Amino acid sequence: MKRLIVRKIILLFFILSLLLVLSELSIRADNKIVLHCADVQSSGYPTVEGLLYMSRLIAEQTEGRIKIAVYPNGALGPEDSIIDMVRHGVLDMGRVSLSQFVKINPNLEVLLLPYVFKDDSQKWKVLEGPIGNNLLEGLSKSNLMGLCFYEAGYRSFYNSKRPIFAPEDLQGLKIRVQPSPIMIEMIDFLGASAVPIDFNEVYPALRAKAVDGAENNLPSFLSMGHYKAARYFSFDRHSSIPEIVFISKKTWNRLAPSDQEIIKRCAKESVLYQRKLWAQYENASYLKLQHEGCKFNEVDIEAFKQRFKPFYRMYASKYMSIIDQINQIN
């Protein structure tokens, strides 16, 4: 444990040193602005491609005066470290799962609830309407500016033991979850054992049988190699947790108002592109996983929804005003 902590400290020191050097270089670059943006996903993944598309739009609309350097593959650390670095202005921008922001903006937790959206149409009306804008603006209290939401598909359960057809099939399984209280409570509520670990640690945990399975979307199941250790993927589609593209308030305040508008506009424009890529990537992922011999099955979704009704009464009462607003959107 001590060795692991020391390694993490050394890695963080290296990342901070690198970013400080990059920052110095960008300041001296003939009055051009280079913003550094991190993503834990691999090159070619829809979120990374969305960021690269946003970077191209910004470069075009500023005639090359502002550029975004995108660092994929977790090169600048895990998601929680990315948030901390952006909050303190050491890193300019990031793309991180919404679930990682709950500890600094608890209202975002409402979007982690199972089956909170009726369908995709309603989801995007919520995310791109007043509700979503208010949730993004809530990050400003933590020295962050939320720019937009990215698509992350629907999360389902997968494991190495057996197919899941109904909620009771999860009993006794050790399931990795994101380090979020409500996600931990949700898994425990279903009778499984929640194991909160970082995203990049899931594959080693599956291989070592420290966990039996996890819950995520199809592209992540493929791109991170989880399918090699957990062959059963069950489409319960219990949640659709979006990603957030965000920028440091320190960086934001250094930008001219006209540049702020360009960045906000380009971020919004990149969403449709990223969503299109996501649909293509998800379909291609399914076909590839089928070829790899993964075992897919549909589930009794109504049984899952019924099972979660007591969960809503127990854990979601504080969010009922927002849930009521969501339910009014068709």
Annotation keywords:
330 residues; alpha/beta; D-Maltodextrin-Binding Protein, domain 2; 2 domains; six-stranded mixed sheet; five-stranded mixed sheet
Describe the structure in your own words:
This protein has 330 residues and is α/β, with parallel strands linked by helices. It folds into 2 domains: 16-151 and 242-276, D-Maltodextrin-Binding Protein, domain 2 (3-Layer(aba) Sandwich); 155-240 and 284-327, Bacterial extracellular solute-binding protein, family 7 (D-Maltodextrin-Binding Protein, domain 2, 3-Layer(aba) Sandwich). Helix content is 46%, strand content 18%. The protein has helices at 2-27, 46-61, 79-87, 120-127, 130-137, 181-189, 202-207, 218-223, 249-254, 257-291, 301-315, 320-327, and strands at residues 33-39, 66-71, 93-97, 144-150, 155-159, 174-177, 193-196, 213-216, 232-239, 243-248, 295-298. Strand 1, helix 2 and strand 2 (66-71) form a beta-alpha-beta unit. Helix 2 packs antiparallel against helix 10. The longest helix has 35 residues, at 257-291. It is globular and about 60 Å long.
Low-confidence stretches: 1-6
In CATH's first tier, which class of the largest domain applies?
A: Alpha Beta
Given the C-alpha coordinates, what overall shape results?
globular
Share of residues in strands: 15-25%
In CATH, the topology of the largest domain is named: D-Maltodextrin-Binding Protein, domain 2
Q: Which structural category do the helix and sheet elements fall into?
A: alpha/beta
The strands making up the biggest β-sheet line up spatially as 7-6-8-5-9-11
